[in-house]
Amino acid sequence: MKQHFLQSPTWQKYQQLEDHKTFHIDGENFSATVVLESTPLGNYLSCPYGPTLLDTSSTENTINSLQNALHSLSELARKQSAFFVRIEPTLDLENPNSLSPHILKQLGLKKSHDINPAHTWQIDLTQPEANLLKQMRKSNVQYWHSHQKKGLKIRTSQNPEDISLLTYLLQNIGDKNHFNPQSESHLKNQLKSGFATLYTAEYDNEPLAVSLVYDDSETRFYAHAATSEKERKLAAGTVLLVQMILDAKNRGAKTFDFWGITTSDNKNHPWYGFTQYKKSFGGYQVNYAGTWDYPLDHPKYALYTILRKLNRLKRKIS
Fold it and tell me: How far is CA 91 from the centre of its chain?
């Protein structure tokens, strides 16, 4: 089972830059990077897209690896006065040795609302560039081929001060769609940590599309993106995405991960539109188990789940 980027030492250092208390455990056939989180009822340990299970050669070995991880995480949780542990195993459910919801429930885990997406879309970058382009929607490739002729310029940056190019567009989208984007300081710290790269598509020196990607040794992740309402005929966001995919291949990455899709066929689903957009670049679906909680203090956890449901209902009503 490959270690996800959110389980890497790089992401742990970033969490520390954000003043989060973190821990790393190497145990028998597993590793785990966790963040100490807090609620009004007390602390919990979050293991985003983890733990990493090192022996998944059979269902039995996969279960044993997870049990070892849960035991060690529980010991750490008790030391930190945490009343539950949150995990997100990333072994593809299509793997015959994966962890089904039935198995996770038997181990004492409770299904939670997904924090990180349970489904993602990926592209295999080990194939020739011609094949990558052939699998994309024709218009996507045409926009990319003609962007220079139309005056669209692409530049990259790892300068933290340039993050305002992205946050300005994100704020405009947030105001229009009534949501609060991530803070500028949060995104700036990602550039400071060295794993993120900012891509900008400019026309007449004005940013039309800005994207932030994360890179590790094998994978490029499509993390944040925003597009201006101006000059939409240039499809600046599409041009950027094609360029980011090809750049990742050229630097030796094996996978491009779009980081989250919906499996819903409902066209009114809030993720339906950008899911179809991501799929227009070719690739395949990957399914994870989602977010699961391992309660240590069952009465407190039961109260926590009730309060959480009430808060979500309140937000829907408001």
Answer: 15
pLDDT digits (tens, 9 = 90+) for 277-318: 999 999 999 999 999 999 999 999 999 999 998 887 776 665
* Distance of alpha carbon 305 from alpha carbon 36, whole angstroms: 18
Q: Which amino acid is at 143?
A: Y
DSSP H or E segment with residue 22? strand 22-27
pTM of the predicted model as reported, rounded to 2 decimal places: 0.94
d(CA 264, CA 262): 5
Backbone angles phi, psi at 14, to 5 degrees: -65, -45
Nearest Cα residue to 184 out of 205, 163, 162, 157: 163
Q: Which of 118-127, 270-279, 307-316 has the lowest mean pLDDT?
A: 307-316
- For the sheet with 206-215, list strands across it: 152-157, 196-203, 206-215, 219-227, 255-257, 119-124, 284-287
Length of the chain, in residues: 318
Give the integer Cα–Cα distance in Å for 282 and 150: 25
**DSSP state, 316?**
H
Q: How far apart are CA 188 and CA 191, in angstroms?
A: 5
- C-alpha dihedral over 157, 161, 165, 167, to 10 degrees? 120
